[in-house]
Design a protein that fits this description.
- The chain has a single domain (6-288), classed as 3-Layer(aba) Sandwich (Rossmann fold), CATH 3.40.50.150.
- It starts with 5 loop residues before the first helix and ends with a strand.
- The longest helix is centred in the first third of the chain and has 16 residues, at 6-21.
- Helix content is 40%, strand content 21%.
- Helix 1 runs parallel beside helix 7 (185-195), helix 1 packs antiparallel against helix 10 and helix 2 packs across helix 9.
- Strand 8 (270-272) and strand 9 (275-279) form a beta hairpin.
- The chain has ten helices and ten strands.
- The protein is globular, with a radius of gyration of 19 Å.
- It has a seven-stranded mixed β-sheet. A three-stranded antiparallel β-sheet has the order 7-9-8, with helices on one face.
- It is of the alpha/beta class.
């Protein structure tokens, strides 16, 4: 915890003790998760940076015949539709499969992606309402993407290995994952109570690849989350953003714990163009099959 001041370490310890004393900490339900995610992403520039990197380094280099894509934890398809839009005109046909256990988000993914099919691209879109790992794939995909979804899988190591096995020759797996830094500190404490295991961060990705001798490359994308609304008690958007940051309904936590979480987030914030922003970087890991 060398990145924290003594005051911040005190806040983290206090939050940790408070979370440990709770009888249980419920995860966000499907409806809450979908709503909070939408507001959170609308206030972050991370996905734009990730998409720009993906276009420049992966999508622009895909062969026209490399047209089978799997998105693991696809959510509503807000990110995937951007991929499909970029490929429109570059490829005549794309088979795009999403995997999403949240039925509400899976339905939105299907509607959003099917709307992208046009004269410029024939998109064969499908979605599996399940978690990745519930079924086996052959060497079916040219591109597999995990965009901030690896955390939600029970067996993260197994999921990465399964994804690599599902690649066609020349295929690529892209895994976008957060570093274990300030914005994720509280979520990790709560996650341990919810799932009985620590969350999964960039260091865990490196350990996985290094111990298996798997070649990979890594890129850091710097980004910010506009958290101004989080520090206004009257803002529904602020509540949704904090709920997503900590992955639980904060209005169901003790008031003292709510206050401690807010104070910690404010302590790691920075002023930028009149807004209160939180650091929101992402690390991108790339593995190729041949």
């Amino acid at each position: 915890m060398g990145i924290y001041t003594s005051d911040q370490r005190g806040m983290i310890d206090s939050i940790d003790r408070s979370v440990a004393s709770l009888e249980r900490v419920n995860a966000l339900n499907n409806e809450d998760y979908a709503r909070c995610l939408e507001v959170f992403e609308a206030n972050s520039n991370q996905r734009l940076g990730l998409l720009n990197w993906l276009e420049e380094n992966v999508l622009s280099k895909m062969a026209k015949s490399a047209n089978s894509i799997l998105s693991v934890g696809c959510g509503t398809g807000a990110f995937d539709e951007k991929i499909l839009q970029y490929l429109s005109g570059r490829m005549d046909h794309v088979e795009y499969v999403g995997i999403e256990p949240n039925a509400l988000e899976a339905g939105e993914f299907l509607k959003r992606m099917q709307a992208q099919s046009s004269d410029q691209i024939d998109a064969d879109v499908s979605v599996l309402v399940e978690k990745f790992g519930d079924r086996s794939f052959g060497k079916d995909f040219d591109l597999i993407v995990f965009v901030q979804s690896i955390y939600y899988l029970g067996d993260r190591n197994g999921a990465i290995d399964a994804a690599l096995k599902a690649l066609r020759p020349g295929g690529v797996v892209i895994i976008a994952v957060a570093p274990d830094e300030s914005l994720n500190t509280i979520a990790n404490l709560i996650w341990q109570r919810q799932m009985g295991q620590k969350s999964w961060f960039s260091d865990d990705m490196r350990h996985h690849f290094d111990t298996r001798g798997i070649a990979y490359s890594e890129t850091r994308i710097s980004a910010n989350l506009n958290a101004t609304a989080c520090f206004s008690s009257e803002s529904p958007d602020g509540k949704n953003i904090i709920d997503f940051i900590v992955q639980t309904r904060t209005d169901r936590l003790p008031e003292t714990l709510q206050q401690n979480i807010s104070e910690f987030l404010l302590s790691i914030s920075e002023a930028e163009d009149g807004n209160t922003c939180l650091p929101h970087p992402v690390d991108i890991f790339t593995c190729k099959n041949g």
